[in-house]
Amino acid sequence: MFSPIGNLFIGLSVNSVVGIHLLPPFTDRHYTPLPLPLLLCFSTVLVVCYLMISGRVSMGEKSRQKTCIITAAVILFLFSLLPIWHMDYFSSSRWPLQYSFSCTLNGNNPINASHLDHLQEVKLYRMIYDKPNALVPQRTDVAMITPWLAPIVWNGSYNIDILNEQFHQKGVRIGLTVFAIKKYIVFIKTFIETAEQFFMVGNKVNYYVFTDRPTDVSFIPLKEGRRLVVLEVPSYKRWQEVTMRRMEMIRNYSQQLFINEVDYLVCVDVDMKFSDEVGVEILSDVFGTLHPSFYGASREQFTHERRPQSEAFIPVDEGDFYYAGGCFGGTVEEVYKLTNFCHNAMMTDKGKNIEAIWHDESYLNKYFLYHKPTKVLSPEYLWNNNFGGRNFLKRRRFVAVTKNNVEIRKN
To answer: Which of 334, 361, 380, 407 is catalytic?
Structure first.
């Protein structure tokens, strides 16, 4: 009856009605179809246009040309009206946002969005907090940033509500690793209990306890979203060997386990306790912590490995800070790179009968010299109360437990 071109026009008109008006109920998209009268008008104009162009409607040549021009203009006009007639078509109700925004800062004051029908799936909240001032430093008594533009985290340098919202939107999971080898198992209960009170509150946390005495790890009640994973590892005769083997074990488990379970790793000593909040403000690609004994020391005073034969060697005229081996971390991928470097360097030195002066800490400092951390934690995050207080130290978040080192390190 009709030519191929005619069939194309007729098919287009029919599809505009069926495809746009009737198809949505059978899809997983929930939206209101375009008004049926508009679609019928649009389809009719297409059919009439085709009949006039093909000569099936009797009229003069000039009249046909004039009619075709007017019809084309009407079609273009109708196309331009589609978004106006049905703004909902391109709204979030048809194309849901990949991420919904839901900020709950300081009071959880929601905006009334009932009149925004196209934002039904988006939760909007007010963000109320003190406005930052680009001309006023947050603190003037301490350095806030490194020469390579990595932030140094001090109390007062961040808004934890903003950071929590950012990390919650990402749904991050944090792993906390500790080594409770031999007699160090006695510290695990206090460590976990204080972590439950202060560490990453409100976030998903896996406690990874490396120990040669798994049966001695007592049951400790945990909050929702947090779990204790006991990893049995071999013991070693010397405590120095234990501390150096930490890098190897963290490296191996990063590949085998951590990469599948968490996004960030925080690696700390077990003979410590949390005494104040430690949250997502510490998280970064890779972070280190200023040693509480050397935060203000000169390069000459740093206790780096000074023997050129060692893989941990750092010359006296090099170095930024002295980092503590008792608190470092980052993404699982970056922690793997760090621990892999340290373990391989240790094994190389072991083949030369060299043991770095401060064991794994010496290799950690060598790594951070040539692979700068993306965030540096202040001594608030690793302190010894025997040092007393300091004017710049507003909070003591993670502190050493009093102990007899000689006794605890005995076999």
So the answer is: 361
CB 281 within 8 Å of CB 158: yes
**Nearest to 340, CA basis, from 257, 254, 260, 270:** 254
Burial of 369 (C-beta count, 10 Å sphere; 0-12/13-18/19+): middle
Q: Which amino acid, 238?
A: R
Q: Whole-angstrom Cα distance, residue 155 to residue 377?
A: 10
224 is catalytic: no
- What's CA 207's distance to the chain center, in Å? 18
Question: Taking the model in full, what pTM does it have?
Answer: 0.71
C-beta neighbour count of 147 within 10 angstroms: 8
Average confidence score pLDDT of the chain:
81
∠ CA 306-307-309, rounded to 5°: 145
Query: Residues 61-111: pLDDT tens digits?
Result: 666 666 667 766 766 666 666 554 444 443 333 333 333 334 444 444 444
Cα end-to-end distance, the chain, whole Å: 98
Residue with tokens 């779990």: 227
Q: Which residues contact 222 (CB under 8 A, 6 or more apart)?
A: 192, 196, 207, 228
Selection from 307, 291, 284, 312 nearest residue 372 by Cα: 284
Q: Is 306 helix (H, G, I), strand (E, B) or coil?
A: coil
Burial of 80 (0-12, 13-18, 19+ CB in 10 A): exposed
pLDDT tens track for 278-336: 999 999 999 999 999 999 999 999 999 999 999 999 999 999 999 999 999 999 999 99
- State whether residue 207 is helix, strand or coil: strand
